[in-house]
């Protein structure tokens, strides 16, 4: 009789659901809305945060990165964390010189401007883009161009350069005005 009771007890317990211990989470919070930020895990997977509500989120355990955006540009002072974190101080820091896109362009017209006449001109331009921005046509652009070159091109900048579309240089452009 005892073996029968043991078998019945085992069958009863076997049908009960097994509940795992709750997996650990990391609590990220802020007292004020964060504004525009990016939040990603070790794999580069983005987690959306509402820029107009204070942060109050539980994340899976692991390493996380929170980056502020200024005019859409990720700043170079990330908050990395792997435990419960109050991001309020990080989010309220004043950035003295936020990263930005800068550049200039110059067009010199050579000679006089006459109706329906050819124009000769010289054109030059420069642009400086922070390395915290990535190429939009490559994966993980939010991780920055240096990460993209390291992961997609084994750190070889020349392979990256060779993969970009080449913009032809124009020596002469005909400009005419319809009359």
Characterise this structure:
This protein is α+β, with helices and mostly antiparallel strands and 179 residues long. The protein contains four helices and nine strands; from the N terminus they run H-E-E-E-E-E-E-E-H-E-E-H-H. Mean pLDDT is 83; it is low at 18-22 and 166-179.
What distinguishing features does this structure have?
179 residues, alpha+beta, 2 domains, three-stranded mixed sheet, 4 helices, 9 strands, 18% helix, elongated
Describe the secondary structure blueprint for this structure.
Elements: H1 2-14, E1 25-29, E2 37-41, E3 56-60, E4 64-70, E5 73-74, E6 79-81, E7 85-86, H2 88-92, E8 102-110, E9 120-128, H3 145-152, H4 157-163
Parallel strand pairs: 1-7
Antiparallel strand pairs: 1-3, 2-4, 4-5, 4-6, 8-9
- Number of β-strand runs: 9
- Strand-residue proportion: 25-35%
Mean pLDDT: 83
- Identify the overall geometry: elongated
Report the major sheet.
4 strands, antiparallel
Can you tell me the residue ranges where pLDDT is under 50 for at least 5 consecutive residues? 18-22, 166-179
CA radius of gyration is: 29 Å
How far is the first residue's CA from the last residue's CA? 109 Å
Helical proportion, percent range? 10-25%
The number of helical segments is 4
Number of domains: 2
Structural class: alpha+beta
* SSE run: HEEEEEEEHEEHH
């Amino acid at each position: 009789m005892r073996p029968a009771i043991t078998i019945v007890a085992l069958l009863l317990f076997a049908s009960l659901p097994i509940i795992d211990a709750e997996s650990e989470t990391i609590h990220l919070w802020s007292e004020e809305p964060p504004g525009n930020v990016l939040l990603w895990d070790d794999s580069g997977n983005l987690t959306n945060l509402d820029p107009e509500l204070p942060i109050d989120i539980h994340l899976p355990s692991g390493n996380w990165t929170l980056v502020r955006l200024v005019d859409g540009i990720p700043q170079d002072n990330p908050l990395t964390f792997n435990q419960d974190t109050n991001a309020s101080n990080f989010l309220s820091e004043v950035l003295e010189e936020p990263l930005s896109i800068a550049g200039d362009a110059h067009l010199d017209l050579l000679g006089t401007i006459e109706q329906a006449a050819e124009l000769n001109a010289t054109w030059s331009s420069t642009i400086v883009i922070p390395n915290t921005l990535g190429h939009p046509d490559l994966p993980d652009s939010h991780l920055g161009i240096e990460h993209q070159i390291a992961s997609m091109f084994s750190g070889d900048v020349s392979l990256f350069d060779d993969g970009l579309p080449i913009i032809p240089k124009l020596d002469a452009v005909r400009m005419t005005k319809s009359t």
